[in-house]
Amino acid sequence: MNVTNWAVYITGAAAGLGLWQLFRNLPTVWLMEYGESEVTPELLSVQKNMRWQDGLLMMILTAMSAGLGWQRLPHLPHFLIFAISTSLLLLIILADWKTMIIPDPLTGGVLVLAGLAILFAALRGEMTWLTLLWQIGAGFAAAGLFLLIGWIGEKLAGQEAMGMGDVKLIAVCVWLVDYRKALPLIFLAFLSASVLAFPMLIKKYFGKRADDDQMSENVLPFGPFIAVATIFIQVIGPELTQIWSAYIGLF
User: Fold this and answer.
1) Is 247 exposed, middle or buried (0-12, 13-18, 19+ CB in 10 A)?
2) Is residue 69 within 8 Å of 79, Cβ to Cβ?
3) What is the number of domains present in the chain?
4) Pick from 32-46, 57-71, 103-117: least confident
5) SS3 129
6) What is the DSSP code (8-state) at residue 82?
7) Whole-angstrom Cα distance, residue 114 to residue 249?
8) Which residues contact 27 (CB under 8 A, 6 or more apart)?
């Protein structure tokens, strides 16, 4: 590993520490449900009393993502968009996991970067008006799919299955990557979520009967899995596309 690679990893780790501190100082209103006007002590406690283990995990994740991005993304503007969008997505992961809220300003930041990625692709001759329409349409189609899944899940489970934060995030993430990677992105998000969802379902239906408070603790936020899938598909997109094509070829 050369000096440049070491510098990228160290910078990534430092960025992770900064993200951990940034989350502790985010405007608390960003982490509140729509219609809420009062900041609860519980919410303040979640935000301010972050464990040092969370900071260490953020440093590891940002260092790894920075290293992967530096090695796999050939163009500096593409790498910078990836690095900044990954930082925002990691903040979204932290916020949704801790509070079940995806802050709109963070999603808006990813949207801006998606616009820059599209502009960069257009300047390099990789984006035409037709592909731009496909890109926009794929994002809205993904959002519509998540709305449908949320509606069906709510009817079946009797509780919210997919929040509007997830709906907005999947659209923005599709715009950030590529419309041709929309289906692999959604597939990877659900696949990664299933790793935690299946044990929770087994516990729910075959374990001891839980009360309402315990059941609410078993709600799994989906935003982190969308974010993780988006990060991965930007750096290992060709491999994931091949796997997806092979999977589709089975049917």
Assistant:
1) exposed
2) yes
3) 1
4) 32-46
5) helix
6) H
7) 30
8) none
